[in-house]
Amino acid sequence: MPRSRSITRARIVEAAYSLFYRNGFARVSMDEIAAGSGVTKRTLYAHYDSKDSLLADVLENYHQLALARIETWARRLAPHDPGSIDKLFSDLAVWSGRSRWAGAGFTRLAMELADLPGHPARKIARRHKAAVEARLAKAFGSVQAGAEMMLLIEGALTLLLIHGSGRYADIATVAAKKLMHHLPPATSQSVPSGRGF
Amino acid sequence: MPRSRSITRARIVEAAYSLFYRNGFARVSMDEIAAGSGVTKRTLYAHYDSKDSLLADVLENYHQLALARIETWARRLAPHDPGSIDKLFSDLAVWSGRSRWAGAGFTRLAMELADLPGHPARKIARRHKAAVEARLAKAFGSVQAGAEMMLLIEGALTLLLIHGSGRYADIATVAAKKLMHHLPPATSQSVPSGRGF
């Protein structure tokens, strides 16, 4: 792809991402995306023939960025280290406390497209959540613990959004620590603390 | 309100409820709601001056219905009774396995309106979730346990929707039972098993 073309494409993807995240997928029009990325509708359609195909690109891009961010915090997680649980949920509380925070992007999108399980965006959301869960399972050295942590994270993000109160991060922290007590004792299966993987 | 007027209103609320639940709030038009409830747009607007005011009525109605349903299953919950946890999450799995199931209505709506924390629908969603959580706290005889159960339920419903797999109901069941081990032993604070409240 020529460089100017790929720069335009990146600009469109970035503008579309903020508009979708801020207002939801259904409420954003191709007109607004063209305006937001400073291109004509003719140029926009030369890159993407539909809002759906643009969304697929936006999500693929966001999936990669989000995985990199998740790797950063997953490295700090360690089974039998309650401090790493504190850090995980306090980071979520800080994130959710930002102005204009509008929930977890993939979860919100899956809910918005709840009636369309075959939509390409739903598939990327599934793949993304599965990747996060696998990373948690690795960090805790247990498939069940990874899935439990995923339940608490999703539940906390939903209730943080609904109630706009950091309380649910505290509740999730306490619950996660109790669940950690049930992890098998540190063995070769667990991941040593303080090491990258 | 004259009887025929209230029958029309109920018909509109019911049609709007299924359309919103099936397709999300943003994607449904007043035209479709008029068609779905078999009234003219003129009649529809004589009852509701906007989609937002109609949504408020739909949610108030749904809140009452959902609370009645929740009371039914909350009555069966008892601290220190693992069977009641099995039943709770297997009911969620059955519900989520229905064709055209599209997630928890209030959660989905809060996500769809994530950028509008002051929207009347967001307030009703908050009130509804708080009522469910209070009922769970009563059933388990503990505020923390009620909130933890809420986290697991919200997390399970989200992941059941995203992955379309009953696995997350099983994961939540195992997690909820572990958390139950941490409940204070049955005392006057707990709610006796098998009794209505």
How would you describe the overall organization of this protein?
2 copies of one chain form a homodimer. In chain A, 40% of the residues are buried. Chain A is built from 9 helices and no strands. With 197 residues, chain A is an all-alpha fold. The first copy, chain A, has helices at 3-23, 30-37, 41-47, 51-74, 82-97, 105-112, 120-140, 143-163, 167-180. In chain A, helix 1 packs across helix 2 (30-37) and helix 5 (82-97) packs antiparallel against helix 9 (167-180). Chain A starts with a helix and ends in a 17-residue tail after the last helix. At the A-B interface, helix 6, helix 7, helix 8 and helix 9 of A face helix 6, helix 7, helix 8 and helix 9 of B.
Largest sheet of chain A: none
SSE ordering of chain A: HHHHHHHHH
Radius of gyration of chain A: 19 Å
* Helical run tally of chain A: 9
Look at the structure and give the mean pLDDT of chain A.
89
Oligomer: homodimer
The count of DSSP E runs of length 2 or more, i.e. the number of strands of chain A, is 0
Give the largest chain-chain interface (CB within 8 Å).
A-B, 47 and 47 residues
Residue share in helices of chain A?
A: over 70%
Spatial gap, N to C terminus of chain A: 35 Å
Q: Per DSSP, what share of the residues of chain A sits in E-state strands of 2 or more residues?
A: under 5%
